[in-house]
Amino acid sequence: MSDRAVAVVRAGALTTVQDLGRAGHAHLGVPRSGALDPAAVRLVNRLVGNPETAAVLETTVDGCAVRSRCAVTVAVGGAPCPVRVDGRPAAWGTAVRVAAGSVLEIGAAVRGVRAYVAFGGGIAVPPVLGSRSTDLLSGLGPAPLVDEAVLPLGAGTAVRGPVDAPPWPGPADELVLRLRLGPRDDWFTAAALRTLATRAYRVSPASNRVGLRLEGPALERTSPGELASEGMVLGAVQVPPDGRPVVFLADHPTTGGYPVVGVVREDDLGAAAQAAPGTPVRFTPVR
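Request: output the structure for the sequence above.
Response:
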């Protein structure tokens, strides 16, 4: 194997390879997948001189650690977290040079949920349907990281983006999601729609890359009937029988049978990816 690689020392709770996803395959039953916080991916890639589509690591809550087999430029962004190289503190949110044989440690998120680690040259695992993303629902792409796994890196570049002070948005204390009602809002009572627009929910610990599960007031339906399975889009707010909304994220199924009360604007989903369990959530209906 080429020396341009990193070996996993500590895989963390859930660390996956992600890029900007495999859009355009929903008609085949394949979700977009990709990084839950794409703005963070674009910026860490820019910091190390990669194209924005290069594959990175997405960590969940407690970070990870890797040993580099080559000298490489790295950048860590997304959820703020401690960064160390061979046990010494290193910068978060900017480019850092890591020597061959050194261990890069990404610590637990101080705020937020998911950190992103870009390596100069990108992670060069084989693409599947045009993307290197791990899709936890379908199983496409590389498996989640395990200790001692080795990830190849692409050829690096000496050219980096001119970013002196990148504008990192901090994880919000309260998540506000703009919601366009429909297509099945008529399956819910007027009182339920008022509840959705005025009451606060909280992020459930059961949330994952498939969906942001919410705890809070149940939404009452006008009918106990069931829908035929129909297409689902990124950001769809599906309401299962318990009445608690679920906001679909990148690994969501492409079809479903529970009614969708509305769709969250895609621009708001990066913030949803960084909402830790217990974070208050409010929906704001928009046209």
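The two ends are 53 Å apart (CA to CA).
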